[in-house]
């Protein structure tokens, strides 16, 4: 068993010493943390993590291994994309031995397949506290070879890197929705298909306005929404048709920008399966799965728009909707994977808009 040492170096000069597993090369990205207790295969394959070094706050990672990859309904299951998306992984304790009826390999073997470096033996509690106080920082995993420069995801159009290249049609029912792939999780597509909706999945900058469709879904995705203004412009034009629109995560931010609002970067973002969201105007609170670093500034929303959900922890926006037009979006993930399914009914609400 390899026992290479490595270190995580943050842009403020902080250094965390650890041991290497996965791929034994250097990497750089934005260091973020996820407070979920389970779901590391789903999280690591979530395209919204592109450009980031992910820290799991749960102390033991890898104990149930990596499940077998299957193709169900033309989508890889149970993963959220066809590869690991993070640029690096940081954990407190790495389980070299795994046990689960459906596991076929260790997380160490899986990371090596995709050339993703990882460190264990890191004080993730101290690292998380540092990120919460200072805010998200750029960092480097240094193991061997030439030291890279700090990679800043905010300066890159990550959506263009994770979106598909050509449209793909998943044919099911008579009704059809356009799914704008900004880094779409597979379970968004599964959630639509199981409701007998045909889905035309299109690239992030694809002009679909000449297509026939009954609704539009704007998917999740990585990075700053202002890096994909082509998507914003297409959505803005589509809004003139008053056809139902449902935005998810990055889709919430893109819909807000298309409406004329603004977005901003959060101090350390929301990444977990336990984020409480209050439906505004009610006492109803939902526990949600989230992964984002930007938010909508509701003060900039134009007339006719209103905030829909609010984060119970910090008061930031978790969704917007139009008062009389069929446009709505949420900052959390109603499709979950991983996470609670408290808000999956939002897909049904979206379907009701074009029945």
Largest sheet: 10 strands, mixed
How many beta-strand segments? 23
Classify the helix fraction into a percent range: 10-25%
Tell me the strand order in the biggest sheet: 14-16-15-17-18-23-22-21-19-20
Q: Can you tell me the CATH topology of the largest domain?
A: Rossmann fold
CATH homologous superfamily descriptor of the largest domain = Class I glutamine amidotransferase (GATase) domain
Relative strand content: 35-45%
Top CATH class of the largest domain: Alpha Beta
Total helix count? 8
Structural class: alpha/beta
Brief characterization of the structure:
This protein is α/β, with parallel strands linked by helices and 355 residues long.
Description of the molecule:
This protein has helices spanning 40-44, 107-113, 124-134, 158-162, 186-193, 229-239, 250-259, 345-352, and strands spanning 5-10, 15-22, 27-34, 52-56, 60-61, 66-67, 70-72, 75-77, 88-90, 93-94, 103-105, 117-120, 137-142, 168-170, 176-181, 198-203, 215-218, 245-248, 262-279, 285-297, 305-311, 317-322, 327-330. The chain is an alpha/beta fold and 355 residues long. It has 2 domains: 5-155, Glucose Oxidase, domain 1 (3-Layer(bba) Sandwich), CATH 3.50.30; 158-352, Rossmann fold, CATH 3.40.50. The chain has a 10-stranded mixed sheet with strand order 14-16-15-17-18-23-22-21-19-20, with helices on both faces. A 7-stranded mixed beta barrel has the order 1-2-12-9-4-3-13. The longest helix has 11 residues, at 124-134. The radius of gyration is 20 Å and the shape is globular. The protein starts with a strand and ends with a helix.
